[in-house]
Design goal:
Shape: globular
Distance between the termini: 49 Å
Strand content: under 5%
Strand order of the largest sheet: 1-2-4-3
Number of helices: 19
């Protein structure tokens, strides 16, 4: 029997899980812990049945819409073709002339009818139902959504460098999660992994030091786009930020986040319920049980405050923070419209409040700074419960993006950078700040019994400083001083990947946990093995992200446009 064979015999695993939350089914035995293996699929109940139904519905609707539009296109071709063999311009499977007539009639109904989904006059209930069904099926059709995804052009005046920044940040997060989630339960040489990776700056791309800064870059982008979107809505509303505009802004953000967010919860439950688990099954069951109990916190976007320890789709705490940050944007822009001086004062107060709370929490709880996996179990739990998931500790990067967007908007016709010397100085400061933030993560002492002032100060400032440095990159690229960096970040290939990045963020941890949970032996850590794991996870994530964007995200955005009309907003946070 090989060395790994002793880890499993029939239905018993003799592997001792490294985390206490994963040993809920373990019992002590001479020579180590013994954990009972899953003998097949997990229990199916009403909650799982509902999630399975919604998952299948999300797959069926786009297929039905595609077939419906295709059938209409064929019927139109047969009626309109003057002679056999005459070619017609087509848009997917829908003739362009039919598409143009449909869009024209839709605009007419939108202009002259009180409701977008009804016909003029007082149509019968049957006609209204058919009209609504027609609209829904068209919104879910591939003919409408594939061209919207498969593009390399950045819409409007959006900074094209944001696409590259967004995708590179996503890859950084995926690399960290690949290493982190594999090390939870699936490595047979986890001590070697900790020794080699956690304190080595060469592994910054993976699970070393402040690998999580990609999330703060997301918050920066979200703040930038948040202000830009609301400022454009403000302009179209005759420069009045009314309650109607604000409510429309909030509703638009909810529709942007929640359909795909909740579908990802259903997808996780469906996959984890149907998969035949082996010896390493505790993590998938932990996530499945959490979703069964606290899914409602995800619906309310309060999963960063409620049941954080046992959260459903734990990585979606980011979405709760993001929406809570967006709630503050109208108030800040109202102040911007009244007085620029008051806006500066408000910004200083908000930054100072976030810094102070973060520093005090770090001192009060003795929180680790760069790498909570090196700390005690209690300190690690407090790190995520009291600091990492809380909006008042993560507000800084969002504010940087929001105020940067306001500044660029009110000076969009002026060349702010007058000389190359100014641009060079800005680049030197930006790169220096990035280097300092990363380097200090390896040098700040957060292991002493009494938390140091340096650790508290670093915890309070480093995320906002990182966001400010990345914000300079956005600003310099928009001003024409990006040079080679701008050309790389604005490359057309990033546009497509940025369009599916939200779905990729939501689905990639599910795929990693699924892969790890299906293994019958442990994974041996080497750099080569981790690279292959990361490459495979990236490929599957982009395929799944493309599918989720095509099946769920884009159709829901089209439905929102049918209900509210088009909104002057930039691309989403991801």
């Amino acid at each position: 029997m090989s060395q790994l064979d002793i880890l499993r015999f029939r239905d018993a695993s003799f592997l001792a899980p490294p985390l206490s939350l994963l040993t809920m089914n373990s019992s002590s035995s001479s020579g180590g812990s013994v954990a009972t293996c899953a003998t097949g699929k997990f229990h199916l109940d009403t909650f799982v049945a509902v999630c399975l139904f919604l998952t299948l519905l999300g797959l069926v609707l786009p297929l039905a819409g595609t077939l419906y539009v295709t059938a209409r296109g064929w019927g139109s071709d047969h009626r309109a073709s003057p002679a056999h063999g005459t070619p017609s311009a087509i848009y997917g499977s829908l003739p362009l002339r039919e598409l143009e007539r449909s869009e024209q009639s839709h605009r007419i109904r939108r202009t002259h009818c009180p409701a977008h989904l009804s016909l003029c006059g007082t149509p019968g209930r049957g006609k209204r139902f058919l009209g609504a069904t027609d609209c829904v099926l068209k919104c879910f059709s591939w003919q409408k959504n594939v061209p919207a995804i498969w593009t390399t052009k950045t819409p409007g005046s959006t900074c094209s460098a944001l696409n590259g920044i967004r995708v590179l940040s996503l890859l950084w997060i995926m690399s960290g999660h690949t290493s982190q989630m594999t090390a939870w339960l699936s490595l047979d040489n986890v001590l070697e992994w900790k020794t080699r990776v956690l304190k080595n700056p060469l592994y910054l791309y993976s699970r070393s030091g402040p690998f999580y800064l990609g999330v703060d870059t997301f918050f920066l982008i979200s703040g930038w786009l948040s202000a830009r979107s609301l400022l454009k809505m403000h302009q179209t509303a005759e420069n009045r930020l009314t309650a109607k505009v604000i409510l429309r802004y909030y509703f638009s953000r909810l529709i942007r986040l929640q359909p795909l967010h909740m579908y990802s919860v259903c997808l996780l439950v469906a996959l984890f319920s149907l998969a035949p688990w082996g010896p390493v099954w505790e993590v998938p069951k932990f996530h499945l049980d959490n979703c069964r109990q606290v899914w409602w916190t995800n619906v309310l976007l309060l999963n960063n405050f409620l049941s954080v320890r046992n959260s459903c789709n734990g990585w979606t705490w980011y979405l709760a923070n993001d929406f809570q940050f967006h709630l503050t944007t109208p108030a800040i822009l109202l102040v911007h419209g009244k007085s620029k001086h008051v806006l500066v004062l408000l910004g200083a107060v908000l930054f100072l409040a976030s810094f102070t709370v973060t520093a005090l929490l770090t001192v009060a709880h003795g929180l680790p700074v760069p790498d909570p996996s090196e700390a005690s179990e209690n300190a690690t739990a407090l790190y995520f419960l009291e600091y990492y998931t809380k909006p008042y500790c993560r507000f800084g990067p969002f504010l940087v993006g929001l105020f940067l967007s306001i500044f660029m908007h009110q000076n969009h016709q002026a060349n702010i950078l007058k000389t190359k010397a100014q641009a060079l100085l800005g680049w030197i400061c930006s790169l220096s700040i990035m280097f300092a933030v990363v380097a200090l993560a390896y040098t700040v002492d957060d292991t002493s019994v009494t938390p140091s002032a340096a650790a508290a100060l670093y915890q309070a400032l480093h995320r906002t400083l990182w966001a400010a440095a990345v914000g300079w990159v956005v600003f310099a690229c928009q001003e024409g001083y990006g040079g080679l960096v701008n050309r790389l970040l604005s490359c057309g290939m990033w546009t497509f990947l940025a369009g599916i990045s939200y779905a990729c963020y939501l689905v990639h941890p599910t795929l990693i946990i699924l892969y790890n949970g299906l293994q019958e032996t442990l994974i041996h850590y080497t750099d080569t093995n981790m690279f292959y794991l990361f490459s495979g996870h990236c490929l599957l994530t982009f395929i799944a992200g493309l599918g989720l964007t095509l099946f769920i995200e884009k159709p829901c955005q089209e439905l929102k446009r049918c209900l509210l009309g088009s909104m002057p907003a930039g691309p989403g946070t991801f």
